[in-house]
Task: inverse folding
């Protein structure tokens, strides 16, 4: 008898596995508990108490898997479980929960959005596939249950219900990539903004990187997303002025030199202090086009005329409204220390 052979970690008879409260386990985890491959396959015989959901992943009851069990199975299939013992010949996988068992695999797509709490996403038990995000170098194939999505670099996970999940913007991009229904795409993007899951610019950046903005139904949905995001940001801007006792500005006006050229529109203008405020809700995809160039030209022109331009983003308004109110107040108070600005005509926009 070879007394040097490594003993299984926490060996238990089959009837005691229920005590672990894990209804889905990998073959490696079963082996760590003293259940070999042949014994596992025997349990999955027709009419047996177990089922094999994926290669190397077993459901420890005969009924259909729940949505949560399908997610766990997909993660166990795609992830690399951490190991104990330094990775030598005697090292065996450590029993772990879903978040620890899949350090290099994240749930993404519709399943991730369901975990994030999206009402527009189908419930977990209704998702056709569980999309799993893995490094591009992994050699894995998609199956009926688990669809493999690859990334050069995995984003930092959000752990929800013990499950490592892709951030909302990345999960949205992976979901949209599989959807041809314009209405479904629009509902998901709208909920992302209305539900304050993330800013529109972050979503557009992910869609751009995924090369999805060549699809007409996605472009239409993005236009609605940006309009929705701007309306929400404008409401926050009005609230900032009201709640932080700033002087009331002229809202949404055009500026023009007397008898001269049009200088452009601004979201708020304090004529006595020559301070203009611009709410920058542009999408990242506009940074290199004529919209960005025109925006920069307008700002430079106003500042040459002595008009202070305060630049706010929807994210700043959402995350630090008090600080942004202080920025505006400082600009207004500093007006008396500046040279008088050029006279401009203010027109409603």
Result:
């Amino acid at each position: 008898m070879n007394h040097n052979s490594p003993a299984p970690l926490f060996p238990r008879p089959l009837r005691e596995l229920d005590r672990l409260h894990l209804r889905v386990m990998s073959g490696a985890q079963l082996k760590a508990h003293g259940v070999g491959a042949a014994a596992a396959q025997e349990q999955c015989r027709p009419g047996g108490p177990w089922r094999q959901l994926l290669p190397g992943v077993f459901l420890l009851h005969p009924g259909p898997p729940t949505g949560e069990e399908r997610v766990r199975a997909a993660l166990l299939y795609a992830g690399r479980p951490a190991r104990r013992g330094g990775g030598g010949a005697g090292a065996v996988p450590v029993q772990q929960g879903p978040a620890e068992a899949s350090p290099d695999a994240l749930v993404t797509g519709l399943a991730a959005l369901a975990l994030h709490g999206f009402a527009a996403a189908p419930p977990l038990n209704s998702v056709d596939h569980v999309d799993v995000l893995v490094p591009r170098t992994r050699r894995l194939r998609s199956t009926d249950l688990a669809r493999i999505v690859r990334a050069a670099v995995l984003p930092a996970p959000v752990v929800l219900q013990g499950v490592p999940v892709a951030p909302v913007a990345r999960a949205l991009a992976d979901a949209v990539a599989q959807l041809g229904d314009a209405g479904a795409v629009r509902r998901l993007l709208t909920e992302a903004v209305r539900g304050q899951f993330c800013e529109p610019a972050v979503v557009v950046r992910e869609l751009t990187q995924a090369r999805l903005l060549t699809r007409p139904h996605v472009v239409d949905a993005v236009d609605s997303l940006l309009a929705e995001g701007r309306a929400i940001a404008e409401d926050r801007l009005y609230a900032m002025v009201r709640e932080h006792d700033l002087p009331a500005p002229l809202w949404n006006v055009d500026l023009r030199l007397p008898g001269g050229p049009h200088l452009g529109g601004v979201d708020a203008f304090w004529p006595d202090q020559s301070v203009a405020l611009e709410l920058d809700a542009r999408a990242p995809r506009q940074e290199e086009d004529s919209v960005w160039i025109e925006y920069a030209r307008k700002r430079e022109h106003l500042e040459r005329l002595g008009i202070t331009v305060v630049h706010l983003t929807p994210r700043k308004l959402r995350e630090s409204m008090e600080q942004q109110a202080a920025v505006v107040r400082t600009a207004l108070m500093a007006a008396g220390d500046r040279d008088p600005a050029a006279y401009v005509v203010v027109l409603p926009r």
In short: Residues 1-12, 82-102 have pLDDT under 50 and may be disordered. The longest strand covers residues 262-270. The chain has two domains: 14-178, 247-348.
